[in-house]
Amino acid sequence: MSFGRLERTTGPQPMSDINMTPLVDVMLVLVVIFILTAPLLASAIRLDLPRTEGATPGAAPQFITLVVDASGQAYLDDLPLSPAALAERLRRIGAERPDTEVQLRADAAVPYGRVVEVMGAAHLAGLQRIGFVAEPRVSGGAGAPSKAP
Fold first, then answer.
1. Contact 107, 47 (CB under 8 A)
2. Once rounded to an integer, what is the mean pLDDT over residues 26-46?
3. What is the spatial distance between Cα 144 and Cα 74, in angstroms, rounded to a whole number?
4. Strands 63-68 and 74-76, how do they pair?
5. Domains along the chain with CATH numbers
6. Comparing C-alpha atoms, which of 92, 98, 61, 60 is closest to residue 76?
7. Can you name the residues that pair with 51 across neighbouring β-strands?
8. DSSP count for the chain of H helices, then E strands
């Protein structure tokens, strides 16, 4: 029996570098997603829509969005327009596609007269289908009608 020195071979050394390729791939996908969704979030007009039980989400095949904010400013597809410019754009749309639905979004603070003026401009332009957009009423919470004395 010999008592010699046993030589052991050293095993493979552990890798001390992190593989960055999967991390870079995931980060690039996230950047692309944020680039695509950021413009959609920034173009909304802030409104306080009235609430009602009859409001249900729905979509028409051809529609335009007409918004009247709390100050009475009219927006057609997120573009602010003067009353004369609004009437002209509505007349052009009515001449091209008379079956187009106008989705009217008016802030709860807008006077009724201003809403009727916008509706009248759409009617004179030949757009007969006007849909009023509202949010569903929340029971007992915000948006509930106040009782006048």
1. yes
2. 83
3. 26
4. antiparallel
5. 54-136 (3.30.420.270)
6. 92
7. 135
8. 3, 7
Neighbours of 2 (CB within 10 A): 3
- The whole-angstrom separation of Cα 2 and Cα 125 is 109
Q: How many CB atoms lie within 10 A of CB 34?
A: 10
pTM: 0.53
Q: Residue 136 class from Cβ within 10 Å (0-12 exposed, 13-18 middle, 19+ buried)?
A: middle
Question: In sequence order, which ranges of the chain are alpha helices (DSSP H)?
Answer: 21-42, 83-96, 112-124
Rounded to the nearest integer, the mean pLDDT of the chain is 81
Name the DSSP class of 132. E
Q: φ, ψ for residue 119 (rounded to 5)?
A: -65, -40
Q: What is the mean pLDDT of residues 35-50?
A: 76
